[in-house]
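Here is this case:
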Amino acid sequence: MNQVVKQKRSWSKRLEQKKKRMDNVKDLVNGMMIPTDRIVDVLEKLIRPHDRVVLEGNNQKQASFLSEALANVNEKELFDLHMIMSSISRPEHLDLFERGIAKKIDFSFAGPQSLRIAQMLEDGKLNIGELHTYVELYGRLFIDLIPAVALVAADKADRHGNLYTGPNTEETPTIIEATAFRDGIVIVQVNELTDELPRVDIPASWIDYIVVATTPYQLEPLFTRDPRHITDIQILQAMMVIRGIYEKHEVQSLNHGIGYNTAAIELLLPTYGESLGLKGKICKHWALNPHPTLIPAIESGWIDSIHCFGGEVGMEKYVAARRDVFFTGRDGSLRSNRALSQMAGQYAVDLFIGSTLQMDKDGNSSTVTRGRLAGYGGAPNMGHDPGGRRHSTPAWLNMMTSDDPLARGKKLVVQVVETFQSGHKPIFVESLDAIDVKKETGLAIAPVMIYGDDVTHVVTEEGIAYLYKADSMEKRREAIAAIAGVTPVGMMHDPKKTENLRREGLVALPEDLNIRRSEAKRSLLAAKNIEELVQWSDGLYEPPDKFKIW
């Protein structure tokens, strides 16, 4: 047999290319330190046209100094970049595309820029790779979206290049690891250099360059909800959730989405929940940011543990003082991790509860509507039943509706919505806007946030639909219509069928849960404003100025 002749080849091309790029800036940098006023020049020489660049820009923490610098490079030198961002949050994120510096984007969420990105897509000023969930996007960084360059943010660096990320570690380690261990270039903006760090969150050997930013990185108090704005309707819904879902199914581990409806649940645990004798029986373990509205429940002994996606402005001292509840380092500050907390929210919790902008008659929902390309962040990760789950809990087992010997439980996926949103727009619609968005944008699939077959419960001001009990699509549709109010979907319900659904346990109205609508008042809230949350915390919670009214 003829022997195969092996051709000589280099197995370190990526490393060789990296060294060439770094040689281009050796006269502009001091070791691994980039002078603050030379950052644009350095970016122009380290990054090349068509590169994949991952820019840290999640819900809260923004590598804002680096994103501004990138938006100021010479578009004749640096163009057609493929940007990867979990969240498109700042104006310059889209300025990159207006100027031609970037051409393609893969992302998860674009709440603050959702209107602009929809218009730019229509005008042909950017191309979308895909709309991802957070875990999906992080996973692809290690498979087929491996970055050439990572631009990230940290609190502090020491002279060796070790990083301290503090309470807002979030997605930083994931982004850096995907880049550093595939011979990409990692550039970190820091708020300050220091001789000694409170703890080392990311080692210097993962880092190529550090630049001290002119201002601290942007950090938004995204998860703070002022109890003053919680309405009686949201309190009624919260009472139904506690009584008709948490108590009924013995939910002990969970994730709450962002919103006033979930804030209401948190603030009712020490009052309404206490009156039902539920402490120690529900809501013990959480995958959740440190919501200030959790403070009364923590202080009154409801909560055993919380693992956080990220920090929350003003909660730093409180978290450090409650280390039995939170995951903290030796220095006392929170250790958050967005990727791991998303995984915990996907596989380790019994229940996800969130909201949406539109839901169709089958229970499919989306926050992508006509003219608004918001994306969906982590909701699809946590808002579905993961087929790989094998551990059982009472709540998970409680979803079993079959006596088949191979029957398995199911994660509880709850959607809480009012039948109409602001501007009298119905939440329940015959067809999701996401279908039209797919056609208009050329996306391969309609951007559905949570698919109806994953949803186990829908809660409105009218009642609860227990969709997991439905043995047919017809029954599911009837249950949704029964609680959809006077929306296009709700108008299709048959009152006689609704009575049957109540008897069968597929629908529960407040009265069926022994809840008086007249008792759903703000007086039930454990804290009725931010000032009372501060009092509950013994002064440890330090809210941002915009939330202070005293």
About this structure: The longest strand covers residues 149-157. The domain at 227-533 is CATH 3.40.1080.10 (Glutaconate Coenzyme A-transferase). The chain has two domains: 15-219, 227-533. The chain has a mean pLDDT of 95.
